[in-house]
Amino acid sequence: MNLKKWLATAVVVAFAGVGAWVFLGTGTSPAPQSTFVLLDGTTKTTEQMKGKVTLVNFWATSCTTCVAEMPEIIATHEKFKDKGFDTLAIAMSYDPPAYVVNFAESRKLPFKVAIDNTGANAKAWGDVQLTPSTFIVNKQGQIVKTYVGAPDFAELHKLIEKLLAQA
């Protein structure tokens, strides 16, 4: 009986460890090679992100947390955009493109917005299904932090400042 309890505990601890690594963003991993189709019809690739610290946010117009956090994402973008920081908001495949365009225009989003029509970007970035999901990518193109749900923006700003100071 003790062996069964020990094995059960070991399995739970292993899954918790993996979950913490994935969802809390400890460690770094290369950002997946992706091409994003922007609202203006142009594209942006993960390769083009290199050299800047980039916030990549998967969101949807139907997600109340996404809509609520957008003013903070705008403020973050405005605060750091002249220091080597960029923001890319990726609307989920189920989000009607007209809603995304209306949201971006009515809120005057000051950063690039893409629509993941096929779901390929969400799949490549860890099979994103929960929104908002936010990834912080360093200048070398590595994901250094992942947030599922709204980030703690004070903590996020400290991380961005730290990453911007690195070579």
Automatic annotation (TrEMBL):
Gene Ontology molecular function terms on file: oxidoreductase activity
PROSITE patterns from the UniProt entry: THIOREDOXIN_2 (PS51352)
Highest taxon above the source species: Bacteria
Thioredoxin domain: residues covered: 25-165
Stored Pfam families: Redoxin (PF08534)
InterPro entries with a match to the protein in the record: Redoxin, Thioredoxin-like_sf, Thioredoxin_domain, Thioredoxin_ResA/DsbE_sf
Protein name as catalogued: TlpA family protein disulfide reductase
